[in-house]
Amino acid sequence: MTQDNETETVKEASKAVQLASDRTVLASERTYASWLRTGCATLIAGLAVMRFMADVLNDWETRVITFLLIVFSIFCFTIATWRLRQLQKWLPYSEIPHLPFPMSVGLSAMLSVASLFALFALWQMNGR
Fold this sequence. Notes:
85% of the residues lie in helices and 0% in strands. By secondary structure, it is mostly helical. The chain starts with a helix and ends with a helix.
């Protein structure tokens, strides 16, 4: 009887660890999505500053604020992928499959390139 109780306890503990692992994977994906959302929000804020604050602020102030916001958006896209990769290395096995790393890199790279393009385009258009 004692051995049956110990076996049952081990099974329960193993299941608890597996569920915690699954929750960690899902939490990391929510964190990834939050970093992407923050990056998109700062990209939009940078575009809004360039578009709507150009009449209120000096030209150099507008450019600096826009530059900082768009660079921060690129930072957010990069950090999102880095953090996701760190967790995937730390927790390689779980019942819930991880978000494929090439997909996260591709999405972050696409958003970073879009941010760079927006920065370059707005920088060129600001003088006109």
